Amino acid sequence: MIEIRKDESFFVILSHRLDAMNADEAKEIVDKKLVDIDRDIVIDVSDLDYISSSGLQVVLKCAKLAQENDKECFLKGAHGTVKEIFQVSGFLTFLKEIE
After folding, report:
1. Span 13-54, pLDDT tens digits
2. pLDDT at position 89, please?
3. Domain segments of the chain: what residues?
4. Does the first or last residue of the chain, that is N or C, have fewer Cβ atoms within 10 Å of its Cβ?
C-alpha cells in the first residue's frame, strides 16, 4: 500500500489500492516517516491500481509537507484510471509529472 524511502528525494511508493480502507494507516505512516523534509518528494504510483478521495488526501498531505518546507512534490508513473483521477481532481495543477 505505502512505502517511504529516503534517497536523493523522499520516495512515497503507493501500490495496489489506496482508499478509505487503508488511507488512515497511510496518513499515519506519512506523519511518522516524512519528517525533517530536506529534499523533494516523489510520489510513485506506477503500481497503484486505484485511488479514492481518501487516498487523494494522503497525496495532498505529502504535497503540503513539501510546500511548507520549500520543496517540490512530483508524481511518477501515473497511468490509466489513476492518471484520470489525478487529472479530473485537479491534482496535476500542483503536482509535476515525471517519468
Report:
1. 999 999 999 999 999 999 999 988 999 999 999 999 999 999
2. 98
3. 2-98
4. C
The CA distance from 82 to 45, in Å, is 8
DSSP classification of residue 93: G
Distance CA 4, CA 42 (A): 10
CB-CB neighbours of 52 under 10 Å: 15
Whether the predicted model's global pTM rises above the 0.90 cut = yes
In terms of CATH architecture, what is 2-98? 2-Layer Sandwich (3.30)
CB atoms within 10 A of CB 68: 9
What percent of the chain lies above the pLDDT cut of 90? 96
